[in-house]
Amino acid sequence: MSAFFVSARAVCLLVFFLLFPALTQAACSQLPGGFSAHVDHVYDGDTLRLQDGRKVRLVGVNTPEMGRDGRADEPYAREARNWLKQRADRQRVYLLPGSESRDRYGRLLAHLYLPDGRLAAEWMVREGLGYALAMGSDERLADCLFEAEQEARQKSERLWQQSPVAAGDVSQSGFAVVRGRVTRITPTRRGLYIDLDQHLALFLSEDVVDEVGADLWQTGQVLEARGWLVDRLQRQQNLAAGQQRWLLRVMHKYHIREH
């Protein structure tokens, strides 16, 4: 083969990789069992409405909340919404139902594949516009979602400039990735409580404990967990002896790890 043809082939490959980076990096393949639908409106980075009126909550990702009722937008909320809007609004997409059909608000729970075949959740977590979630996700996609997130973490992209949050610094409700040292472990009939930095309690249900192993955690370890923080003082007047004000329920084995 002549040097001319070798060089021409190399140039063609370079152009391909530059023009189609998504195809060369994508890890989460499109799985069967879904359906096509037309997007009518994008509310935020993980919520949209279909042309038939159904609301969809994307699974596999949690993006920052848009401000409402006088509250400001969370950091990068508008960027996440705009990212999804530019790629999915008024477009025909592919939806793959999650492990549960609907959430408590009646929204359809599904993975969203964009018109070009990419999994929206994968690319939002890869760019630091959302956090990977395994809860409600198709198990076959969980690994690639958390792998994609590692790229954003390593580069401190967007959300990862401020995450994880030190457990001892938690001061407000909402989704968070927290990190802290185990200061107490309390087994109960319903699951396991793990206190971090004597400030925040993680709760693992029996099912999650069975998956990760009850003997895996020890005092002094540094753990990282993700989920929705709850202020117990908003639901009860006083804390019981030894009870931490802040509570985070770990909903999946992928949502807790030793650091």
Tell me what the structure shows.
The structure is a single chain. A hairpin with a 3-residue loop joins strand 10 and strand 11. The chain contains six helices and 14 strands. The chain has two domains: about 130 residues, OB fold (Dihydrolipoamide Acetyltransferase, E2P) (Beta Barrel), CATH 2.40.50.90; about 100 residues, Nucleic acid-binding proteins (OB fold (Dihydrolipoamide Acetyltransferase, E2P)), CATH 2.40.50.140. The N terminus is likely disordered. It is globular. The strands form three sheets. The chain has a five-stranded mixed barrel. By secondary structure, it is of the alpha+beta class.
The helix/strand class is alpha+beta
Task: Domain count, please report it.
Answer: 2
Beta-strand share of residues: 25-35%
Total beta-strand segments: 14
What are the SSEs and their pairings?
Layout: H1 3-19, H2 21-25, E1 35-44, E2 47-50, E3 55-58, E4 61-62, H3 77-88, E5 92-102, E6 108-113, H4 120-126, E7 131-132, H5 139-155, E8 165-166, E9 174-187, E10 191-196, E11 200-205, H6 206-212, E12 222-231, E13 246-250, E14 256-258
Parallel strand pairs: 3-6, 8-9, 11-13
Antiparallel strand pairs: 1-2, 1-5, 2-3, 4-7, 5-6, 9-10, 9-12, 10-11, 12-13, 12-14
